[in-house]
Write a structure and sequence with these properties.
Strand content: 5-15%
Number of helices: 4
Order of helices and strands: HEEHHH
Structural class: mainly alpha
Distance between the termini: 56 Å
Largest sheet: 2 strands, antiparallel
Strand order of the largest sheet: 1-2
Number of strands: 2
Shape: elongated
Radius of gyration: 32 Å
Length: 96
């Protein structure tokens, strides 16, 4: 068996034992008095917490911008950069 499968199986067994031991009826108020098993209240609270945590901690979508370069644009850019450049010929040879 895989390590993750074993850990998951142990976790499921522990959670099952926990819920089986907490079946006592509990009265609570949520817009009126209700009586439920303690394990169901814990399970519902856990489920709501997981959903809220997943919503708040999800990664944000990033906007990506695609720039297309035409060959003529590249040539124009090289002309502009070479005319305004203060590099010597030796420096240009070293860079390229």
């Amino acid at each position: 068996m895989n390590f993750k499968t074993i850990i998951l199986l142990i976790l499921v067994v522990i959670i099952t034992i926990f819920f089986m031991q907490n079946t006592a009826p509990v009265e609570f108020w949520f817009f009126g008095k209700h009586v439920f098993a303690l394990s169901s209240i814990i399970a519902i609270t856990l489920f709501i917490g997981i959903i809220i945590g997943g919503i708040l901690l999800r990664p944000k979508k990033r906007k990506t911008e695609v720039i297309q370069v035409n060959p003529t644009t590249t040539m124009d850019m090289e002309e502009i950069s070479s005319s305004k450049s203060t590099l010597s010929n030796e420096d240009r040879d070293y860079i390229s």
